[in-house]
Amino acid sequence: MDDRREPAVPAVRVSDRDRDAALGVLAAALAEGRVDPHEHEIRSTRALRARTADELAALTADLPASAPTRSEQDRKDLREWLAEWRYWLGGAVIMSGIWGARCVQKGELTNYWPVTPLGVWAAVLIAIAIWPHETDDSDKGDGGRTVAR
Asked: Residues in domain DUF1707 (predicted)?
């Protein structure tokens, strides 16, 4: 019997985009002082020569993920806010369906009660969009206080 152990899953080859992402992590680590310039050069060279995801992962495994940039965080916040509006729309469809079924059952149009919960929910979502939020950017000249979006 052969004692050599081979991985059950073949190594996944990396793309240029994967290499660029690893180089970005290494550049951030250099800027933060987590690696020195000599080590950065060695790791970057290895990243450019890497063929599999395992090789790239080994180069960045001991480095923490860098914090998202302001624009990345803003995009994430916008995606989450738009997702909330999709939930609102789903709630509007369900509540309107219940209201419509009740109207059919009674045989007459009744007061459109979903307007109250939907209005409150929409007001909260709008308030989230316009309400000032905390930032930790002390270099903006505002001392890290609230800044409107």
From this structure: 12-64
